[in-house]
Amino acid sequence: MAEAVLQTARLDLRCPQASDAGEMQDTGAVFTVLNTPTVMEHLAGVITRAQIDERLARSAATFAAEGFCFLLMFERDGGALVGHCGLKRVDDIHAPNPGDLEIGWLVREDRWRRGYAREAVDAVLRWAFEDHGAEFVVAQASNRNVASWSLMEAVGMTRAPALEFHDPDYPPIDNPTIVYQITREEWATR
């Protein structure tokens, strides 16, 4: 297993490796963490093995090129894969802010309500502002994904209506995509 890029009190966050999809497939973790109907409800639904492989490869390539990506989250006690949290560039072709630094996260259902997402988001925001010199960070969610936008508000992000957009790849109930943001100054004084 690769060395952790970030650590929190309970989590090790590390860059995905080419072998991760196969290893997680063998143990069933990829379906427990990234690909259950409940976890993927607000993310356009369950995806294929090829899509999972592509996302892991894209994260590894982004890390090699830019020094950040969506990091896999593992419990420090026991090493269980619990989700991912990290940074990427906004790449939705419908978004009005392509290239902005975006934070995102996902936690497996049996680890919800334990504070893992908040713990990881705090670490990744620190990483964005202190290590990558970000001036601001955005986050996206469906309006009905109350858990995600509530966390955005809890970490000091504010809604940015001018950045919201309609994504035809998502069902009408999940549109529009709402966007929150936080500046370096807001993060430093929260």
Structure, described:
With 190 residues, this protein is of the alpha+beta class. 32% of the residues lie in helices and 23% in strands. The chain has 6 helices and 8 strands, in the order E-E-H-H-H-E-E-E-H-E-H-E-E-H. The strands form 2 sheets. Strands 1-2-3-4-5 form a 5-stranded antiparallel sheet. A 3-stranded antiparallel sheet has the order 6-8-7. Strand 3 and strand 4 form a beta hairpin. It is globular.
Q: Which stretches of 5+ consecutive residues score pLDDT under 50? A: 21-28
Overall mean pLDDT stands at 84
- What share of residues is helical? 25-40%
Major β-sheet profile? 5 strands, antiparallel
Rg over CA atoms: 16 Å
Indicate the proportion of strand residues.
15-25%
Distance between the termini: 35 Å
**Silhouette:** globular
The class by helix and strand makeup works out as alpha+beta
Biggest sheet strand line-up: 1-2-3-4-5
In sequence order, what are the helices and strands, one letter per element?
Answer: EEHHHEEEHEHEEH
Short summary of the structure?
The protein has helices spanning 20-27, 29-33, 49-66, 116-131, 146-154, 184-188; strands at 6-7, 11-14, 70-75, 81-89, 101-107, 136-142, 158-159, 177-183. With 190 residues, the chain is an alpha+beta fold. Strand 3 (70-75) and strand 4 (81-89) form a beta hairpin.
Top keywords for this entry?
190 residues, alpha+beta, three-stranded antiparallel sheet, 6 helices, 8 strands, globular
